[in-house]
Design brief:
The chain has 141 residues and is an alpha/beta fold. It contains 5 helices and 6 strands; from the N terminus they run βαββαβαββαα. The strands form 2 sheets. The protein has a 3-stranded mixed β-sheet with strand order 1-2-3. Helix 3 packs antiparallel against helix 4 and helix 4 runs antiparallel to helix 5. The protein starts with 5 loop residues before the first strand and ends in a 12-residue tail after the last helix. The relative contact order is 0.15.
Length: 141
């Protein structure tokens, strides 16, 4: 699972982009009154702000976030998470446990889980998962 980065709904897209950069993540959860209500991804920033030539400091995350938030249970399988990602055409899926967000599964995490199941034998899958040649996890070297 990927680290959870989050911002209140009244913050700018620039702040979201800066947070994603600092935290080295591809998404930011958007909260209102302590409740997650949406998500802003790198893709949202590029397509809805940068490509349109809009000043990211002047747009709120509320204006570009994806909502309603699609989530998955912490007990979901890799297959269930993948199916939700495909159904909703999303790359980041917040993980919920007892009504709280406990993590975010990224498409890259799914690829890594599948690569591990296949003993990192598929070079293409390793590339999607971010596994560099010669840099397999310690248990596989």
């Amino acid at each position: 699972m990927t680290h959870i980065a989050s911002l209140p709904i009244d913050r700018s897209v620039r702040e979201a982009a800066e947070l994603m950069s600092r935290a080295d993540v591809g998404s930011v959860l958007v909260f209102a009154e302590g409740t997650p209500i949406g998500i802003v991804t790198e893709r949202d920033v590029v397509r809805k702000i940068v490509a349109e030539g809009i000043d990211s400091a002047k747009v709120l995350v509320a204006d570009v976030m994806t909502t309603p938030l699609v989530t998955v249970s912490s007990t979901a399988t890799v297959e269930e998470a993948s199916e939700k990602m495909m159904t909703y055409n999303i790359r980041y899926l917040p993980v919920i446990e007892e009504e709280e967000v406990v993590g975010i599964v990224a498409a890259k995490d799914i690829a890594l889980a599948i690569a591990k199941e296949q003993n990192f034998e598929d070079v293409r899958l390793n590339a999607v998962a971010g596994v560099k040649p010669g840099a397999l996890p310690p248990s596989y070297d």
